[in-house]
Structure formats: C-alpha cells, structure tokens
Amino acid sequence: MADLVRLIRPVRRMDWLCLGAMLCLLGTGVVFIYSAGLGSESANSGLPQWIKQLIFIGLGIPAYLMLTLFDYRHFKDVIPVIYSGAILLLIAVLFFGITINNATSWFDLGFITFQPAEVSKIALVLTLAAYLCDPLRNTRSLKTVGIALILGAVPFLLILRQPDFGTAMILPCIIVSMLFISGLPWKFLGMLGLLAVLTLPIAWTLLKDYQKERILVFFDTDHDPLDAGWNMKQSMLAVGSGGLTGKGIGQGTQNLLGFLPTTVAPTDFIFSVIAEEKGFIGSVWLITLYSLLFICLARTALRTSDPFGRYIAVGILTMLFMHVTINVSMTIGLMPIVGLPLPFVSYGGSFVLSMMLALGLAQSVHARRD
Amino acid sequence: MKKGTVTERAKFRIRFVLGMFLFIQGGIVVYLWNLQVVQGHTYRENVQQQSLRRIRHPGARGKILDRNGIVLAENRPSVGIALYMEELRVPGSMVKTIDHIETVLDDISLKLGRPREVSREEISTHYREKRLLPMMAWGDLSDVELARWAEQIGPQLGVDLLTETVRTYPRNDMLAQTLGYVGRGGVAQNDEGHYDFYLPEMEGKAGLEKVYDHVLRGEAGGELIRIDVGMYKYSVEAEKPAVPGRDLQLSLDARVQWLCERILAGETGSIVVADPRSGEILAMATNPRYDLNNMVPVIPDTVWQGLIQDARRPLVNRPVREHYPPGSVIKPFICLAGLQGADVDPQTVFQCDGRYFPGPNARPMHCHNRLGHGPLTMQQAIERSCNVYMWKLAEEIGYDPMYRLMASLGLGEKTGLETDYEVQGILPTDEWKRTRFGDRLRTGDIANISIGQGFLNVTPVQMLQLTCAIANGGTRPDLTLMKGIRDPHEEEFRPFSTERHPEELHWDAENVAVIREGMRDVVMNPRGTAHRTAHISGLTYAGKTGTAQFGSPGNRRYRSWMIAFAPYDNPRIAAVVLIDAGQGSGKSAAPRIKLLMQGLFGGRSNG
Fold it and tell me: What is the value of pTM for the model shown?
C-alpha cells in the first residue's frame, strides 16, 4: 500500500496546468484535423486522419504518465547510450529511411512512420543537460561551450543531410538557450551570433534547390506563386480571411476547395485551417495555450532544485517555443516555409508521441522539484 | 555562496528567456490582429476572387403574337446531350481528362448513331476556359435519338441531357422581313454587374426582334458558383432567377397577312394593309421571303450565301426599305392639292388632246391615251387617270401647294413604323435638286411629279399613309405595327403605346369628297381604269392605279401600283399593292387588290 502511495506521489505533484494545456491543444488538433480532412474526399483509404491522431494520443497519454512516474534522474546514467543511439538512428535513416517530399527523414515501420530527428532533439536536451549540470564543470569556459557545440553539431549536420532544414534549425537554438541558462557570458553569446551570421552563406550553398526556392519566395511572394509560393500565399489568404471569429468549423473554404493543399492542411498548415475557421479568436486561443505551456515549463525550471532537471525543462521549453514560433510564423508569412509541424495540433503520429514524451519528461522533473 | 549565485543567475536568465518567448508570442498576436481583423476584409475579398465565379443566365425571350393571339415567334425546348466537366475529370494531367472525354463521346456517338460534333480542340478549349459550364455535345436530339439515349445510353457520370431554348417561328416565312430573327448575341446594353461566364443568349438581329430586343429580352439572372482549386464547380452559393422578357402583340392580323402573302406568290412586290381609322397595320407582306427557322440559332453559310446572292433580294423588307416613283397613284393627291392649296374649282374643265407642251419650245409630253380624253372635270380626270389634266392643273397651281400637301402627308420623311432600315423616299425641292443636279425644279420636273414620275419617290408604307388619310377624310395616321404588350405571366395585354399622334389635316369635306368620288369611279365606274380588273359585286370601294416605268428602252418594265380603301362609305381597310417588274397596273396590281378585297369582304367577282 505504502509502495503504491509512493508510486502515485509524483502524479499527485505533477503540473496540472501543463497537462491541461496540452490536452486542450491535442483536442483542438483533433477537431481541426477532422475539419481539414473534409476537403479531401476519400483521398486516402483507411481510417480518417483524425481517428489515427486520436489513437496516437491514446498511446501517448499512458507513455506520458509512465514518464512522469519514472525518475528522470536515472537517464543521467545512460546518457552515452541515449546520445549514441540517437546518432545511430540519424545515420541509419539516411540509408534505410523513406523519402517523403525530397527529405529522407522517416523510417517506415508499417503502422507508423517514425522520424528519428524528433527523438534526437529530446536526446540532445538530455545529453546537454547531463553535461552542463556537472557541478565541477566550469560552464563559463570556452571549452565547455565548444564541447556543447560539437555535441549539437553532429545531429544537426546529420539532420541537415536528410535534409530537414526546419528540424535542424531547432537544435542550435536549444544549445544556445541551455548554454545561456548555464551562465554563458554575454560576449560568448555575441560570438555565437557572429558565428551564425558567418555560417549563413555556407549554409546557403548546402541548401537544396527547393529550399532555396522557398526562401526566395519568402522575400518575393510573386516569385513563383504556383509552385513554392503557392502554399504561403494561400495560407496567408486563409489566415487573413478568417477575420475576428472565423468562418466556422468545417467552413474554411481555402481548405475545402483545395487552395490550401490537402496534403499539408492537417499537418504543417493546421494553424491556417484554425485561423481561417475560428478567426483571430482561434489564433489567440492557440497562442494562449502555448504561452501557458511555456510558463509551466519555465516554472518547473525555476522551482526545481536539481540543475539536471532545470536544464531539461529549459531545453524542452526552447524546443517547444521554436516549433510553435517557426510554424506559426511561416503560415502567416513571417518566415520562409520550412516544413515544421505545430506541436500537439498538427497531424502526425511520431511527432505527437515525441512531443508528449518531452512534456512527460518535464512533468517528471516538476514532480520531483525538491 | 557561489552555488547560490549561480542558481540566482540561472533563475534570472530563465525568467529572461521566458520573457523573451512571451514577448515574441505577443508580437505574433499583434501581427495576427492586423492580418485577421484589420486587413481581414482584403483577404476575404481575395479569397472570394479566387474561389467565386458569376455565371449569367439570360431570361427567356418574350413571344410575338398577332392581334388575335396567333403566335408568330416563341421559344421551344431543344434537348441535347451535355458534358459536365467536373464529373468527367481524371486525376493527373489535363490530357488524360480530354482523352477520357473523347472515349466517352465516341462510345455515345456509336450508340446514338450520330457522328461526333465537337472536336478535341473544342473540348480542350472548353475545358481550359469554361469548365464550370456544361458543354453541349449534341444539340437538338430527334425523337429517335432520344429513344436511343433512353434505351442504350442514359445518364452517366458527367453526361446528361440538357434542355436549351431555341427561338422558333411557327409560321415559318410569314412576315419574315418584318419579324426578323435572332442570333447568338452579346450582352444587353442595360445589363448591370460583372459576370465571369455568359450562357449563350439570343439577340435580335433583324426586324422587330431587333427593334424590340430590349423588351423581348428578359432580365438576366445569375449563379454564384464556388469553385475549387481545379476550377471545378464546388457549390452554388447563390442564385438569382432570370426574369422572362415581355410579350408583344402586333396590330397585324395573321389571316390578312397570310392572304396578302398568298396573293403575292410568284411575284416580287409588296402589299400593305392598314385600318385607316387607327393607323394600325394589318398586313405587311412582301415576296420573296425566307424561312425564319433557317436563321436560328446560327444562319448556315449556304443559306446566307443563297439569300444574299438571290437577285430578287429576299432579305429586303420592301414595304419600308424600297422607294419607287408612285406613278398615277399620286394623281388624287395632286388634285387634292389643287383643291386645298389653290382653291381650284373641281368642276373646272381641262381639255385633254393627248399631248401637252411643258414650255414654248419644249417637246410634247403624251397622255397614255394618245387620242386624248377630251374635256375632263377633276373627278373624271382621276377616274381615267388623265396625264394632261394633271399637267395643266400643275401648271395652274404651281409646285408649292403640291409640295405642301405631300409634305403634310409625310412624303419625304420616314413614317416611323417600328421596323429597321426604313427609308424616307424623296419629296423633291429646289434645294434637293440643286444639291443633286445643280439646278432648280423646272416646269418639266413639276409636270413629271404631278403624274408620279421623275424625282418623286415613295415607299409602299408612305403610300399607305396617304391612302389612309383619304379614306378617313383627312387625318394623317400614325402608322404602327404594335398593339399590346404584357409582362411575363400576365394574361391581358395593355396598350403598347399611349402616345399615338394622328394628325388632323383640316381638309375641306367637300374637297375630300371630290377625290373620294373620283377614286370610287376608278373601280366602280365602267370607264374607270380598274373597273374591269378590280371590281367585285357587293362591295363599293375606291382605288387608284399607277404604273411607273423603269429599265432601259429595250428592256422596259413596269412597277405596278394600286391603292384602295374599302368599304367606300365607312372605310375599315386601306391597302397598297406594289408589284415590282409587273406588266402595268391594270394587269398586275389591280387584280391583286381584287383578290384582297374578295378575301377580306367575301365578295364575288363581277366577270
């Protein structure tokens, strides 16, 4: 009995607000995946996407709770395994993965396609957290920064190789954010910024043509409106035409009429569907929920007395923030289209699962905050 | 406490990061407010522009009926087989869809027993430019074809029957030139609003169909169609039903028209009949004619070439379009000019010796009776159509009274009849002759005018206007073809126009009586020029014949006129017959007036 009480204790201490916000986002996602699917009449046979999404959520919640119950500190002991495992998966996907939309990013596991890059982000958060939390480590030294950068550079380059520009972009942000928390001096921060600027021209040459196209399109929407610019233009029309209250669920004409391509409407452009059908109110609803998640994660980082946990919370916070900001920005024309889904809301099995696991990890930290 | 400071610094930096993140989220919200709320209407308009299309549906065209309700022009349903592109599309390239449509068409063609009528090119064009609209593959199916459709083909995905309306003229060639026809046309001038697609609409191309196009045409309705990204129809957002056009009732009597056209058969010429009391045209016949149903919806090239190359010019609406010297039919009016404008005594006798010298050294002009009519009063002169009397009368009164009378009766100007292409004829003046020939009107010219030759030119309807005025005792009628108009779904016609302007000419009743009696004698008196050819028993009526020569001396031919009104005492009918290239009035026009009177009044020939 006492064992059970001890086992359940973390659940009682978990961040309910965080859980609530996540469930709200998941629910919103299912509704609009359903709505987005109205446009494609029996395009793909089998289960509708919203039901598939529900199944993954159903799988994700027990995993989430189990991770909450599991003491995250045990991960510290297996960091080399986690990190090298993630790297191996990233290498393997380049050889055995399947190619969708020009990017070899997925393993086809039959019932589900799995994207190792999703796991690698969490693995990098754990690895960096373990590396930086060592009390003997001088986090302000150039050596620490250099090692952290190398730890991040390996998965970064492998993901860029797929190429998955959007996901790759998240990694440097996670590293910088975690280093910043560790007390990185401002001058290093400035140097990192300079480095990033200097790398840009090199990065440009590494980009594939279609990626360059997307970026060109961003600076000139009429560059090629029927091809690369099409999605951005139609997405902006969808969001803009939503108005204050939107056209109603299932009434978004941009999606129904196929102007917003049915392949991306439930995934990368789910925000456009929501913004069109629920208007500004719907947009604010989503951003409020995400902001609540950010606040919860920051609160976890602030309350926990364990530096490992703190770094984990900050890493996850940054990862989530980057996903949300990049996705929303690209659908409203503030950024080039990079093909990054919206956490908890976009359709996609492995993505939903990995995001739920990330929050589960944060809950594990939160439940053991003192 | 170094560790404490580290933690404090970390906490500060966590708050800093969170603050930055929330600030960025706030920025996104502000941006969204601008995008969705402030500029929302712009985006909504753009969305509508790319996903809404307007299609215009023309209103059903109004009917044209005669005064008794006999239909002269109406619409009939025409059933065809149409293709619906949104249901025929094949995923992939456009070529696949076109291929598929061709396969479907070939299959149906085989079963229908009718060759394909749309080419790959046409399908492709329709598909590219107006895939929202059904495409007619075979129009106007016969009963046999409809039966084959029902038994072997039947509606299938993307292929179904479609009913269109086609203008039809139940009386075929009756009143052809006046009624006119319709053709594929543009958009009515009074149309408002912008449309992306226009369904075929009929437009009046000639005759009354053209003149009253704005009345016959309905008010267009429309459909607001939501299209998907492939430009296919997704849904109908709004519909505005088209309003049918108004029906027209002509003053024309189809039975009289039929009679006149029968009388004209085989000749080139015109017959116009009016009620002198009201000025309503009862018949406006011309020959040759053409079948109006050959002209719709599109005039086949062979038909058109045949019509324009026909030397008898069947397209011409002779009663209004052609003007000719009136010949002797003008003589009663020259006499009336003498009575009204120059106070000539009708009992004054002019001697006809068969010759007349217009000037001291001029060559003589001859009467048709070379031996001379002897002494004649005005009434006798009309009865026998004496030229010398007219010349002497004209010499005495001068041109002025003649001109004034003819002008007051509307010669030299259009009658204003509701047709297209009316001409005004020629009522010569000094000024007119000066511009044409650089000289004033000479005595010889005036002498010629007094017997209806020379420069004076009139149209048959102008002549009808003159005849009506004599018949009704001095009112210039306001000739009209129109009687009534009714709005769609109404039973009763209301008067077409409330503004009719007959003009009272204030003629002296005694003067008119002299002319009328002279014209009566033309038909009724055994010595009258039309007695043998036009008299019928049981009907007293009046008339005047006329012949105008034309053509070279070697190939001299005659335009044969006759005007008439009946019954003599209380005229209900005024008529003008003109036979082009006839044999002289006694032989061509008068017998046709006789047939007309027999037809109208049921009298029998007196020999």
Answer: 0.72
